[in-house]
């Protein structure tokens, strides 16, 4: 049998494991699910005859190497910074490797050795990064094959709550790592290019510079800029493109409301708040407001944010219980961002019957035969339940499909790579459609931008 080692049995591995188990009989696979928690690994395989759960501490070098040596191929679903040691072991034992994470500099340094050993180290094969690369390159390659010249590429993605579970004023719940949501946009100005001009948005104004999107059947959305939209310009072969922008999707109104936290300083992760463990939610909120001998915390909040009592922004703040004097933070030595995450998790955690949703939207502007044209490509995917979420599906299925294609010799190009070649993206996108991950492409009038204004 061919042994597939999956390291990490967390939330994103659910659909990945289910897919490979469903193929195990026909494809002669034995799935080894390894996690620090044996109970979690056991739960994910559910006594399947073609699977084995094992407890694995990846920091135990001998234990880790022994597991990798026995495998035919290795999938790492660990946090990105932990992939590198797995990758080095895969080189030592001549094993292919698949991850959903961004290619780090350390991983890229292994490219030549991987090529020399005819090994495929496939990275960025999840949702974002992953499905975004594949769906974009498919259309870009089709445009180029007709002789078209790319003028504009905009790409947006967001993890949201499904419409049937959207029942708070923020139109948002945590469907993935809450910390990443709280810290989004920090670490430097967002940068992109519009009509050949480089643009920069500092963190302080990021959430007031949004673009609006419409997805048929799902309504209107907004998107704020990702930190570095230019990272894939050369990889996509778009060095000469006039406009390149990548953004994160939210429901309309979210960014304006989130900006209140940014302006107050509640998303700051650079310092620890004194006695945070015993602090109430109300005290936390008051920490960012000026002292006043008579004004309440609520009045000070409205004054500093310039919002009226009948403003929907005020209702959004009230919904989060920010002014509750009885709820305690219960986090020792916590930063403002960590406390805000705790408060938001109270209100934004997915409930047992809730479903999540993934929305992805690409815009392709190009010139063909002297005429400027545009294609819009849209995808919306709803999760099944709390185990097989839309996020788990769109992250895990591409990983699983790529793994099987590598095992079966359908993907052959060696080296450290991301899924931008036809041998990778065509079969994966085709199979994803059967699981409800479908992109609908629409010819649109070319919008572009006025260079005199932008």
TrEMBL record:
One GO cellular component term: cytoplasm
Keyword Oxidoreductase annotated: yes
Residues annotated as domain Saccharopine dehydrogenase NADP binding: 4-121
Domain Saccharopine dehydrogenase-like C-terminal stretches: 126-437
Keyword field: Oxidoreductase
GO biological process, one term: lysine biosynthetic process via aminoadipic acid
GO molecular function: saccharopine dehydrogenase activity
Protein name, as recorded: Saccharopine dehydrogenase
Organism (species): Flavobacterium hydrophilum
